[in-house]
């Protein structure tokens, strides 16, 4: 799950456009020693030193036991399903980036769409059980915008029906609840390190693994199934992260806490400035959750003077690049809309959210002047 991005490291952006999200880019001079080390070692990929360092550093930072790095989050989703030999039908959400469902099709699995909770915008546990059939083998929920799913309710259903749970946690880097990292729930959790994420490696991803045996299988699958030079044990894929990406991840980890603190302040400023705007509802107040403020979604309700799409157009006229996340629904795309579960009558809450939610810009470096400019567009309607 990713957003549009214009990547410029040096010089900084000088145009007047404001993007929905921008990658956090440390000073280029900080990255040069990493590149020099890679150049000197002549190890560019295949589990080199920075790859190993980043896996361990991320385990330590995220509070998880095992993690396998990938070239991107989509390959990680595809491989996570293969790791548990998922087949048949998988229950998932229509309100997500298309990679969630695409990973199922790549594995020959039938997606079964279930409606979302109107408040959290996550998969509604009350709708999951009624969608289970003899062909159902797993549930693939999404921590939408980094807000945790009802992990206890989902796990209870999975245990009752002997189903696997694979979380698309692309937005959930660093998110914690009172029980610890949200990434520890389910059988596997999949992260994205795309350039638009709160933590990025330009392109990248990871699978959070519960034990060493599962990680070993995943590591085989992401490297063509190789165990050694002459032994292939599975029809794996080339999903490895390069040393350059891993090195950038090591550098990013030095700045992540400051980046998250900046996002937190921007989130609070938006909520303060928009609290009295009629017809605008700020979604996803973190409450007791340790959030990562990966997105700032608002809901444009009926008593706002403009529709969501009209407000979107007004922002675009001002060269403020907001996003209708997620529109259209995955279930509306041609490869999915023929499925019985994709019918809009089955997905009223998801359809409503898709027509009302708008994600405002949020990223480290977004200035107070830019925030004021964004809010003024809304207030002027």
From TrEMBL:
Keyword tags: Aminotransferase, Pyridoxal phosphate, Transferase
Family matches, as Pfam families: DegT_DnrJ_EryC1
SUPFAM superfamilies membership: PLP-dependent transferases (SSF53383)
Keyword Transferase carried by entry: yes
Family matches, as InterPro entries: DegT/StrS_aminotransferase (IPR000653), PyrdxlP-dep_Trfase (IPR015424), PyrdxlP-dep_Trfase_major (IPR015421)
Class of enzymatic activity (EC top level): transferase
Gene3D superfamilies the record matches: Type I PLP-dependent aspartate aminotransferase-like (Major domain)
UniProt family annotation: Belongs to the DegT/DnrJ/EryC1 family.
PANTHER family referenced in this protein's UniProt entry, alphabetically: PROTEIN RV3402C (PTHR30244:SF9), TRANSAMINASE (PTHR30244)
Protein name: dTDP-4-amino-4,6-dideoxy-D-glucose aminotransferase VioA
Gene (UniProt): vioA
């Amino acid at each position: 799950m990713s957003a549009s991005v214009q990547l410029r490291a040096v010089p900084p952006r000088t145009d007047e456009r404001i993007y929905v999200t921008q990658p956090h880019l440390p000073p280029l001079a900080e990255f040069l020693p990493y590149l020099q080390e890679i150049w000197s070692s002549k190890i560019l990929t295949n589990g080199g030193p920075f790859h190993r360092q980043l896996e361990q550093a991320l385990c330590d930072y995220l509070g998880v036991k095992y993690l396998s790095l990938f070239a991107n989050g989509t390959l990680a989703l595809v491989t996570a399903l293969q790791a548990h030999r998922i087949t048949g039908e998988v229950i998932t959400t229509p309100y997500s980036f298309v990679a969630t469902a695409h990973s199922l099709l790549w594995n020959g699995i039938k997606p079964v769409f279930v409606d979302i909770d109107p408040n959290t915008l996550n998969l509604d546990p009350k709708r999951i059980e009624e969608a289970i059939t003899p062909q159902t083998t797993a549930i693939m929920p999404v921590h939408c915008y980094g807000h945790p799913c009802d992990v206890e309710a989902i796990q209870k259903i999975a245990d009752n029906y002997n189903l696997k749970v694979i979380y698309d946690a692309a937005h959930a880097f660093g998110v914690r609840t009172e029980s610890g990292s949200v990434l520890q729930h389910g059988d596997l959790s999949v992260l994205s390190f795309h350039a638009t994420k709160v933590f990025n490696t330009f392109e990248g991803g990871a699978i959070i693994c519960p034990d060493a045996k599962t990680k070993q299988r995943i590591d085989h699958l992401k490297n063509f199934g190789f165990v050694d030079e002459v032994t292939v044990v599975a029809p794996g894929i080339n999903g490895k992260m390069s040393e350059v990406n891993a090195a950038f991840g090591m550098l990013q980890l030095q700045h992540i806490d400051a980046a998250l603190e900046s996002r937190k302040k921007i989130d609070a400023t938006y909520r303060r400035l928009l609290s009295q705007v009629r017809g605008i509802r700020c979604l996803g107040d973190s409450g007791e959750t340790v959030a990562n403020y990966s997105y700032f979604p608002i809901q444009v309700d009926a008593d706002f003077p403009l529709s969501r799409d009209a407000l979107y157009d007004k922002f675009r006229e001002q060269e403020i690049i907001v996003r209708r996340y997620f529109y259209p629904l995955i279930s509306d795309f041609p490869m999915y809309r023929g499925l019985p579960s994709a019918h809009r009558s089955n997905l009223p809450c998801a359809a409503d959210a898709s027509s009302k939610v708008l994600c405002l810009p949020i990223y480290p470096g977004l200035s107070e002047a830019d925030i004021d400019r964004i809010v003024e567009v809304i207030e002027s309607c």
